[in-house]
Fold these 2 entries.
Entry 1:
Amino acid sequence: MKKQICIEETELHTSEGRRNFLKICSVALSALIGIAFSIPLIRTFISPALQQTVSGSTGLLELGSIGDCQVDVPRKIKIKDVKLDAWTKFPPTEIGAVWVIMDKDKAFTAFTSICPHLGCGINWDENSGKFICPCHDSFFDIDGRVLSGPSPRGMDTLETEIKDGKIFVKYQKMRLGVSGKFPA
Amino acid sequence: MKKWLEDRLGLSTLFNFFMDEPVEGGAKWSYVFGSALIFVFMMQVVSGVMLATGYSASATDAWGSVYYIQHKTFSGWFVRGMHNIGSSAMIVLAVLHMAQTLIYGAYRKPRELNWITGVFMLFIVFGFGLTGYLLPWDQKGFWATQVATSIMGLSPVIGEFLKEVVQGGNDYGNLTLTRFYSFHVFFLPAGLMSFMAIHIYLFRRHGVTAHWTPGELELKKKTQPFWPDQLFKDVIVAVVVFISMVMVVWYRGGAELQSPADPSSNYLARPEWYFLFLFQLLKYFEGELEVVGAIILPSIVAALIIALPFIDRAKSRSPLKRLPVMGCFGAALTCVIFLTAMSVISDSGDERIQKQREESEKIAHIAIELAENGIPPQGGASVFQNDPLYSGEQLLRQHCLTCHNFEGSGGNSAPDLTAYNTKQWLVGFIQDPNAPKYYGKTKIDVMPEYDLEEEELSDLVDFLLAQAENGKNIDTELKETGEILLEENGCYNCHTYDGIGGDTAPVLDNFASDKWLRGIIEDPGKNEYFGQLNAMPAFKDKLSKQEIDNIVHFLQNKRKKPID
C-alpha cells in the first residue's frame, strides 16, 4: 500500500533517540493504565468467591414436636428456611431434609439426608433396617456408621436442641467426598 | 525464540502494517480525539463485560442485581461508575472529534464516506446511552425511556409499530428489558465495530487531513511515523481522560441508583444530560406540533449533517473560505449548549421540581437501606415491604379504615386512631369517652365522663402511659399516685390493675404497650379487652404475626412522635 513507499521516499521528521524515548513512554503509560483499570475489574470478577452469596438463616431451625417420634424409628423431616440468594430473599421454602431418631433414653440424633460421598439423598429402608444411598449404594446402620459402599465417612450428625417439647436443629452442609467432617 | 515466533506469526510485519503509518505534516494534538474514542470504547467494553457477570435483565431482578453490584460486589461501584462516566466521555470526545474534522474539512472529497460512517457511529453512541440508561430498571431510567419510546411512537406512519418493536410489546415489562439489553450488548456493539472498521480503513486509505495552511511539499517534509510519535500523544491524552474519569467516579462515589421502577407513581422524568437539549426543544412544540419538534426537526438536522460533504461547495479547505459551514456548525453547537443550559436552569429554579428531586433521593435511600435485608422474590418495588413502618401504614389503611378514622380518611364507626394513645388523645378520652371521636359510635357506651382537675388528669395519663414502656417497673411514686387516682375515681369498679378491680372493662396492666396493642388487634373480644360489647373483628386469623407487628410498630411510632 501507499505508506510502504512513502517511508522510503520521505525523510522522517524525527530522531532515533527521541523515537526510543516516545516508544518507552507510550508502552509504560499504557501498561500503567492497563494495570490500574484491571485491579477493580479483577476484584469485581472474583468477588463472589470471596463472599457468601447464597445463605440461609443462622441458628436453629424448628423441626417439629418430639411427641411424634417413636423409639428407634427414623423420621424424615423436611427443613424449611429462608434463602438469601445474592439480592433476593425467599420466604421459607424447603431447603433440605434431616433424619431424626429417638433412642430408648429419649435422646435425639439428627442426620442430614445428604450423603457424605457425593451429595445424593439418603433413604431409610424399613425392611433391612438400614440407611441406603441410591446413587452409589452406600449402606449405613441406624447409628449412621458405614456398613458398605463408597462413602468416605458415616452419616453426618447435626446439632440438636430440645425446647418446650420441640426439636431444633442447626442445619449445615458438610464437605463431600472426604473422610473428615468439615463444614462446606 | 523471537525468530521462531516471527517466522510463524509474522508479528513484526503485522505490527508495521498497523503502526508504521506516515503522518504527513507530523503528529499533532488535534488528531488525538479518534484514538481517545477508541480508548474509552475499549474501557466501556471491558467494564461492560464485567458488569454483565452480575447483571440480570429481568424486570423482577434488574434493580436488585444493580444494587448488588453497587453495594455488595467488591469494586462493583467503581466499575459501574467508570462505565457510567464513560458514556458521557464518549459523547464529549465524539463531539470534539466531529468539530476537529469539520474545521479541518476532513469530510471533503475523497473522504465523504469517512464522515458519514462517523456520523452513524455518533448515532450509535447515543443509542448506547439510551439503552444503557434503562437497564437498572430504576425510576429514573424507566420514566426517561418511557418518554423516548413514546416519542418514537410519534413517527409518521410507522410510529406505533416501531414503538412496539422497540419496547417489546404493548407495554413496558420483561421484554423491554431483554430487548434493550440485547441492543446494548449485541446489536449496537456489532454495529459500532463494523462502522469503526470501515471508518479506520478509509482513514488509512486516504491518510490524515492535515492543517490547511502548509503546502503539500512542506507536509511531506515534516512527516512523522504514527508509532511512536502520534501514538505517544494519543497515550498522553488517554492517561488524562482516564485520570479525569477516575477522579469523577471517586468523588461522586460512582453512579446513582434511584428507587425501583414503580409504574404506578409520578416521577419527574429527565433524560441523561446529553439528551437535555432535545427535551428542552420539545417544550416549544405543544400538542399537534409535537411531532415537528420530536421527529421532523431532528431528522432534518441529522440529514443535513450526513449530507455535509455534498452540501459544502467551497473551493478551498480553509475554514475562512468555508464560512457558511463554520457558521452553521457554530450556530448548531451554540443552540445545543443553549438549550441544555436552559433546561438545567429551568429545573433548578423550579421549587416544585427541587422538592420532588429531594423526595426521590429520600425514597432511593430508603430502598437501598431496605434492600440490605434481601428483596422479596417479586423484586423491585416490593423491597418496601421490608420496612415495618411503611408496611404497617399500608396494612392499617387497607384493613382498619372501614371502621376507624386515621388522619382524615376512613370510616367513623370506631375510635379515631389519629395520635392514638398519645397524652392528648387519652386526656380527651377520659373527659368524654362517648364522644363520636372515641367510643360514641360503638356499642361500648358504659364508661362515664370524668371531670378531673388538670393536674390529676395529667398524672393519671402519665401513670397509664408509663405502663407502655416499663410495665411493672414504673416509678413507685407515680404508681402510688396512679393507684390512688384509680381508687378515688372508681376505676376499679370495672377495670383491673395489678390484680385488683372489676372485669367488665379492659385490663390496665401494660396499658398502651406493644403487647397490649397486639392483643387488642388479635382478639379484641377477649374479656381482658372489650369482652361482650366488642364489635371489632379478631385479626389473629386474618393477618400474619409479622403484619400485626408492623401495624403495632406503626401506631406506636406515631404515638411516640410529638405532634407537629
Note: The interface with chain B takes residues 2-3, 6-7, 10-14, 19, 22-23, 25-26, 29-30, 32-33, 36-37, 39-41, 43-48, 50-51, 82, 84, 86-91 of chain A (CB under 8 Å).
Entry 2:
Amino acid sequence: MTRANVIDGLRNGALLGIVTIFLCLTGFVFVIAGVLNEAFARGDQASILGVLLALTLIGLWGGSRVPRRSGADGWLGVAIGGIFSGLVSGALVALFALIAGYNVDAGVNLRQYLIALSPDVVHALTLNLGTMSGALALFGLMLGANLIGSVFGLALSQRQIFKSAWDKWSQTRTALSELPALTSLRTHPAGRFVSYILLVLVIAFLPLVLNQAQNYTLGTIAIYVLLGLGLNIVVGLAGLLDLGYVAFYAVGAYTVALLTAPAPHHIMWNFWVVLPLGVLLAALAGVMLGVPVLRLRGDYLAIVTLGFGEIIRILAGSDALIDVVGGPMGITAIPQPQLFGISIGNVQFVYMLVISVALVIFVTSRLQHSRIGRAWVAIREDETVAAAMGISTLRYKLLAFGIGAAFAGLGGVLFAARNQFTNPQDHVLLVSINVLAVVIVGGMGSIPGVILGAFVLKGVPEILREFQDYRIILFGMLLVTMMILRPEGLWPSRRRKLEMHISAQEAAEELPLDPSIGGEVF
Amino acid sequence: MTPILETHQLTKRFGGLTAVNHVDLAVPERSICSVIGPNGAGKTTYFNCITGFYLPDEGEVLFCGESIKGMAPDKIAAKHIARTYQNIRLFAAMTAVENVLVGAHARLRSNAIGAVLHTPGTLREENNALKRALDLLDFVGLAAKSNEVARNLPYGDQRRLEIARALANEPLLLLLDEPTAGMNPNETVVLMHFIQRLRDELNLSILLIEHDMRVVMGISDQVTVLDYGTKIAEGTPEEVRNNPAVIEAYLGRPIEEVRQ
C-alpha cells in the first residue's frame, strides 16, 4: 500500500516537474506571473510575488492529482504520495533553477538558445534570493504546495462539492428547459413567432449599443459564420474534407478589391454589381476545382484542396502578378459601398452581414431537408452505395463544393468591402483551419452549432488577449479539452446526437459480433 | 419474350485472375433466379459487373434488350435496377425512413432551386415520396421504426430495411446478395416467403445470390452454378441438385476417383 503510494507520488512528481520546467522554458510561467502581478500587486514587470503565486498554483494543481490514484488509501496514503510528488518535482525544478542560475551568473546569454530565459526572468525564478538559496526555496515551495494540494484534493473529492454542484446545475437546467413558457416558445407556432421577433429585435439593437471595436468583432464573427455554414455543407453534410476553403474566400475578396478599387486597374464598378459577381466567381472556382479533384476521396482530397488554397494565396502575393492582383501589399482604398446615398460603415456592415447570414441559413436549412441534402448525407455515409441508389455522386459533390464556395465568396466580398483593403495575409491556411475548427467545435452538420462555434472560436481569443502570444496555446488546449469531453460539438445536429447516444449505448450493452463480419467487400 | 436481364460471355479479370469467365445468363421476367457457388466463385463480382461498379472486360449486359455495359452505377440504378449487399450497407447515421427516401432518389426530380424556394411541385413530390417511403416500411414490417437510426436497428430489421430501400427505386429487377446471411432458420423462412411475395405481388424479377440451399431449392425458378468464375451448371433446382459437376464443386470428388 505505502509502496504503491510512493511510486504514484514519484510518477506524478516527475510529470509535474517536467511540465513546470517546460512552462518555464516557454516563458509561460512568467506570463501567468505577469497576470497575477496585475491582479494582486502593481509591482515591477518580473516581480517575485507573481512567480511565487504561479509556481504555488502549479504545485497545488499537481498535488491535487495525487488522490486520483491513491485516493482510496486514505489521508496517510495521499500525504505520502503528495510528499514524494513534491520531492521529485521540487528537485527537478530546483535543478533547473540551479543550472539556469549558474549559467546566467557565469555570463552565458541563455536567450540565444531559449528566448524566454532573460537574466531578469532567471533571477525572478530563483526569487531574487541568489541561485543556491533560490533553488532551495523552490524545492521547499514545490514540496509544500504538493502536500497541501494532495490533501486538499482528497478533501474536495470526498466532499464531492463539485459533483453535487454539477448535479444541481443539470437539474436546474432540465427544470428550466421544461418550463411551460419555454416549451411553448419552442413548439407552438405563435411562440416560435414571438421568439423570432425577439431575436430580430435583439439583433437590430445590438450594433447600436456596442462600440466600434465590438461591432468590428461582431462583424468578424458573422463572416466566420458565413464561412462556417459554407464549409458545413462541404464537410458536415457531404463529408468532403476541404482544407483549401480559404481560396474561395480569397476569390470573393479579390473580386471586390480588383473591380471596385482605384488601383491597380481603376475599374471602379459599383459594389452592388460586384457582390453577386464575386459570389458567382467563387462558386465557379469551386466547381472548376471540383471537377478534377472530387474523384479523390478522404485524405487525398484534403491534400489537393490544401495545395489549391496555397496556390491561390501565393499567386495573389507573387511579384510576377503584382500589376494584376496587387502583390504582397495587397489592394487598398476599396471604396465603401453606398446604398441610397448612405455609405455603409462598420455598424451598417453588421446589419448587412446579419442579413447575409440569415439568407445563408435559410438556403442551407432548406437544402439540408430536401432530396439534395439526403443525397449529400448518403454520399458522406457510403459513396459506393449512394451511387447504387441512383445518386450521381460527382454531380452532388460538385453542387456541395459550388454552394460552399459561393458562401465563402460572399464572406470574402463582404470582408474586403468592410475592411476596405485585402492582402494575401488575409487568406492564409490558418483561415481554412479556423473555419474547419468552427464547424467541428460547433457540431458538424448543425446550423446553430456553426453559429455557436464561430462565437466561441472568434470570441474566446478576444477574451484571452490578456495572455498575449500565449492565447493561441491556451486556445489549442481549450480545443483539445473540448474534443475529449464533447466530441460531437457544442450544439450537435439531431442526427449526430442520436449517433453518439447510440454508440454509448452499444458500449454499455456489448452487442454480440455482427454476423456479417468477414463478408466480402462490395 | 425478351428476358429482363441477359449477359453474354461476361468476363471480368483482375490481373491474372479471371473472376468471372464468359458467363451467359438470362433472367426471364417475373422469375426468381439464383446464382450459387462456393466461396470466391465470382458471384458478387458478377453482380458488380451488372450494376456498373466494375467495367466488364468482355461480353455484354442487356437490360430489357438494351445494353447497359459501361454505364455509371447511378445511370443503371435510374433504369430501375436495385440491389442489396452481402454485408449490410445501410446509411448508418440516417433514420429508416431517410434510408428509404435516398433509395427513391432516382425516382424524384426536384432540384436545388425547387428545394430552396419550396416550389409547389417540390413540396408535392416530397410529400408523396414520404408517404410512399412509409408505405414501403409498412410493407417490410418496419412501420413502427421509421424514425430510428439505421445503425440502431436489430440485424434482421436492417436486412429488411435494405430491401425496402431497394424497393423504393421501383425496380423491375432486384439483385439480392445473400439476403439470408446471418439469419436464423425462422427468419430465413419468413424472408423466403417475402421474396416470393415480391415476385407475385410487385411483379419483380429477382436475381439472387444465396448460400442457404433450402432457400435456393425452395423458391428458385432457375439456378445457375458458378465455380472459379465459370458457369458449370444451369437449370431447375432439381436438375442442378443432381448434377455431378455441382456436387464435385461443392464437395470435391470421391476419394476413390482421385486415387485412380
Note: Residues 74-105 of chain A form the longest helix (32 residues).
